[in-house]
Amino acid sequence: MLKRPHFFRNRPSALLARLVLGLVFVPAASTVPTSSATAADIGVYDVLPAGLPAQGKCTDGYCEPRRGLYLRGPIKRGDYEKFLKALLQLNRGDATCQLLPKPDGNCFFTNVFLTLSSEGGSFNEALKIADAITLHTIETIVLKDTACMSACAIAFMAGRSAFNSPNFTYVQRTMHTTSRLGFHSPFIVANRDLQYSGDDIESRYEAALRDMSQLFRPDFPRRLIKQMLAVGSRDFYKIDRVHKLLAFDIGIFGRFKGSRKPFKYDLDVRSTDQFSKAQISEMCMNALFIVTHDRTDDQVRTEYDEAFGPKGFYREVFEVNDDYVMSKSPDKLVVDFGGIEGLLCVIGRDKELKTNFVEILEGDDSLKKVYLNGLHLMNGATKIGG
User: Cα(10)–Cα(1) distance, rounded to whole angstroms?
Assistant: First the structure.
């Protein structure tokens, strides 16, 4: 029996230390790199762009007409108000739509998307746009061969959609297989010709904490915040592998390199007998990797390659050894995780929801349960992005 790898150990104190140390170097009024260009171009699509991801959920065979917004270029002060004006235009100028920080419900949108193409900009402005995106249930998309970096990525993560009611919303943020999405720590460009007092530094530090605290929201994974702080402000934590899409609940569309067909996201397998051994391997490994993803990027890459890569121990075990399948039925498949003490991988079908799931168990405790889509069947190390 193998000992549990070190990345399963709980390390809350280490996480807290990294968060605190990271925030020490994130000044107030945080901004991210921008060019000297004008502010973002924000508006409503007269004609929808080609190459959008597939239409979302429909009701009784009826799909509400799709409507779209765009944001292009550096995000600067005043772009939040421009975004709200675009929303009013999208709502056909209806004055009853109160576009305020706390809308009265009349501004609830369905089947509306926002395409993002920006290298960054104002951190605070991006946070306000993100709030509006979430409040008005707007899907976020990064189109083919475009980039959404830095502050733009903050807004992207706010994407949501709904089942015809503001009370039933879900995460809906999607990038193309050739697009680029990257995160890093916010910072301020200081005037080096000025001297700052101790009071200035303290006030900026406190403001920085307030700014960063706004990232702690339900739809923004905390482990992604850790990655942002770990990478600093001069580099990017890029969403460039399939396992990162899964870990941070980001959708994908388009063709993967080497594939002739567009990626198929939906998955509906009625029986576990329909899964191949290779698919079982990928589902279990990707689910385990989501559980263990709370580490710096270098650790992620090294441990994934060593344990789950093309020649890794777990891949070899799952491909050649059937002894690890503990029980099997049309509704549930239980796999011993290659000898890792106490860990099981359960693949099953939720009859009530009519969907498939994979779950990682430690004894009787569930560490993670995810509902399956086509990504879970892929090699998590598959590269994405332009």
Answer: 21
> How far apart (Å, rounded) are the C-alpha atoms in residues 244 and 84?
31
Residue 275's nearest CA partner among 219, 344, 333 is: 333
Measured CA distances, 170 to 110, 131, 137, 155 (Å): 12, 15, 9, 16
Residues 6+ apart with CB under 8 A from 152: 71, 75, 116, 117, 118, 119, 120, 121, 126
pTM, rounded to two decimals:
0.79
DSSP state of 219: T
Cα separation, 164 vs 148, whole angstroms: 28
Q: Tokens for 31?
A: 């901004």
Give DSSP secondary structure letters for 121-158.
BBHHHHHHHHHHHHHTT-EEEE-TT-EEETHHHHHHTT
pLDDT (tens digit, 9 = 90+) per residue, 139-198? 999 999 999 999 999 999 999 887 655 567 788 999 999 999 999 887 766 667 778 788
